[in-house]
Request: fold
Amino acid sequence: MKKKVVLIGNGMAGVSCIEQLLKLSPNLYDITIFGSEPHPNYNRILLSSVLAGDADMNDIVINDWSWYEENHITLHTGQTVSKIDTNRKLVRTDGGISVPYDELIIATGSLPFMLPLPGADKEGVIAFRDIKDCETMIETAKKYKKAVVIGGGLLGLEAARGLLNLNMEVSVVHIHEYVMERQLDQTASAMLRAELERQGMNFLLKKNTDSILGKKRVTGVRFTDGVEVDADLVVMAVGIRPNIALAKNSGIEINRGIVVNDFLETSVPNIYAVGECVEHRGVAYGLVAPLYEQGAVLAKRLAGIETGGYHGSVVSTKLKVSGVDVFSAGAYADGPDTRAVRVQDDFEGIYKKAVIKDGKVIGAVLFGDISDGSRLFAMIRNGEDVTGKEKEVLLGEGGGKAKSGVDLVAAMSDDEIVCGCNGVSKGAIVQAIQEKGCSSINDIKACTKASGSCGGCKPLVGDVLTYVLGADGVKSVKEGICGCTTLGRDEVVEAIRSMRLTTSKEVMNVLEWSNTEGCSKCRPALNYYLGMVWPEEHEDERESRFVNERNHANIQKDGTYSVVPRMYGGVTTPKDLKKIAEIAEKYEVPLVKVTGGQRIDLLGVKKEDLPGMWADLDMPSGYAYGKTLRTVKTCVGSTFCRFGTQDSIGMGIQLEKRFERLNTPAKVKMAVSGCPRNCAEATIKDFGVVAIDGGWELHVGGNGGTKLRGTDLLCKVKTEEEVLEWSGAYLQYYRETGKYNERTSEWLERVGLDTVKAALESKEDRLALVERIEKTLDLMKDPWKEIIEKQELRKTFEPMDTQAAQTIL
Ligand SMILES: Cc1cc2nc3c(=O)[nH]c(=O)nc-3n(C[C@H](O)[C@H](O)[C@H](O)COP(=O)(O)OP(=O)(O)OC[C@H]3O[C@@H](n4cnc5c(N)ncnc54)[C@H](O)[C@@H]3O)c2cc1C
Ligand SMILES: NC(=O)c1ccc[n+]([C@@H]2O[C@H](COP(=O)([O-])OP(=O)(O)OC[C@H]3O[C@@H](n4cnc5c(N)ncnc54)[C@H](O)[C@@H]3O)[C@@H](O)[C@H]2O)c1
Ligand code: SF4
Ligand code: FES
Reply:
């Protein structure tokens, strides 16, 4: 009869150990696994990517249900082991299941540390540890606006970025002056904070939380200095504690974690422990790479294969926030007996530091350019002597660094881990290249999962490829528009054009999307690109749009909507005002507000009231919700103002009537000022028109939002017809070359003003662009009218549908 091995904890470390064991000795044991969570084994690391919208829950499963079946593993999910009877060698769960073991592995992970604050038990106060927490945040963001993340470490910052992507306002509360102080020095930390602030994160530094405010649900946070901030959601990310209660109650020796020796043996015979619950040589790890190393040693031990044991790990980390490159490894802090080589380039926003002690690199911090990360990490782990060539560690000699990445790969043993997040060794990657024909980082990702999580090992995976195939044999890697494809925006649009693809399904099939359903990132993008290339042939895929664009109204924090009717150029009439007032009364609208774009906003409307209200209003949609032309703001201009040189109202109305309903990569705002005093603030708009003597100045690429940008002058023209021609050509060029979700301010910086000017310079080119934009504009219909008229669309606004509609994305 086979011996019985039982694993407590269906998480990353324990299951990885079982995977290794199955590889070494597939038939040695009867295997039983218990997991408290109701899911099969998944990649916890990627919860940050799910929250940020870069991955779906399906993408993060490491071993699905069938894997357990195929390997004859008995899996009990939703079962927490509550007792280990070490005398009778039995485990018992809270659900009443009792199973005997010959060998027992405890891999219960960690518990998030929840600050024991008054009010911490209120609704809306959560940790970020598992799928449930991630789902709670996604759901909360649909209804609420303000999030406070307590803790500016890796987890807190990744949670904050995800919540920003979910359109929440996010404040990060940190107890120290510098965020990520456990991984970064002050210079790198300050650079990181500046970048995250630019992305829209708000920081409350040197703040100690005193209490959580609110009745049943959280409404705010108070600090010990008396300051209070509003909060609809509080995420605590202030560290973790090894989950040791079960071991403790079973008489197993614990300290901070479950104490193990180099062979992962606990104080009780036949009981082992791996993962975050473990304390080895006084260290409890909180990153997966060491846990995989522990698992590999334990697997050998259980398989009866000789092993030198586990001797501890040096760790490296990379923050998984898009647009930010931060890397930290080893002992990064300066000490009395350390010296450092530093490179700082304020122009490019790059900072690199290698800490050296006794001739060896013992730690590194990189910001802005982390391409040296894996090379430095290998040097730290190998303990290579760099005496006399310390500067070359970062600066290189004659262009080359002390040792190239490929040299370092050559010196690595096959067992050494290249991808810490997924536990992939150099040997496994070499095998995938030699036996499965992998020749790019993406091939390796598909075959072995290496580089698929934090991405920090990409340079090292690249070095392994170069080491095996030579520089010419490696296919270059590019980032796809989302995790479902390796194709970039231009390639996808080109394929849509040349292969005449007209639906998202076709694109995903023909271009071999890895996830055949797409994800929340690519689905709306494809819908836009298809509509842009094939305005007549492509049928708008309503289900691919975000909730606001599906419902043609802006969802508010309490789940109600706001209604903004179109008012061309910000001009209204007493008749329309009376009508709006009556409708506001009829539907008991709680708030009527004039917007920044000179429109009237009716806030707090129930979803089921929307179609009726639109019908009563009988006005076009103001599109206050869409990736389209929002408003054309105007000043009073020459009609009334004594400084006005041109009719800015008339010009604004013409522009708005012409481009309303146009789908654009991101929202577009316009303004027209009647003279250079610029009362309509045209120079912070996507397209701003400013009247001058004898003509108009056309300004482009402005943005008054979080990433403030003043416009660039595109050109000066004389007539209103020219304004319409240039604006049409400009918008169409943006539509055809912009990335989905890219505002004109970002697009202009990417493609360059000179490129745009060159594209619009000749009248012939302008007219061709105008002809294409007109073709699209001719097809646009008012969405409110359409919903009022079509019963099947109207139905989706009935109360029963609310839940179903909201779970689509
Ligand atoms: C959002 C997020 C992002 C992260 N990003 C990174 C990253 O980029 N890089 C990195 O290296 N690390 C990262 N980490 C940390 C990494 O996920 C952990 O180090 C790793 O998951 C720990 O593995 P483990 O198996 O020890 O514990 P876990 O993965 O927590 O697994 C333990 C499992 O045991 C179950 N369990 C506990 N007690 C019992 C019981 N009595 N009976 C049955 N089941 C039980 C738990 O429910 C859990 O499912 C991240 C963590 C989070 C939360
Ligand atoms: N990219 C990655 O590698 C990654 C991402 C997420 C999580 N993780 C891991 O998950 C675990 C949990 O992450 P974490 O960031 O919670 O842990 P952490 O211990 O790394 O950071 C917690 C942070 O919270 C701060 N803090 C403590 N008390 C506070 C208070 N009262 N108010 C405000 N700030 C306070 C600390 O100064 C610290 O910087 C860690 O092991 C981490 O390594 C890793
Ligand atoms: S921009 Fe000039 S024309 Fe327009 S309101 Fe201001 S001062 Fe008058
Ligand atoms: S180390 Fe994170 S993906 Fe490889």
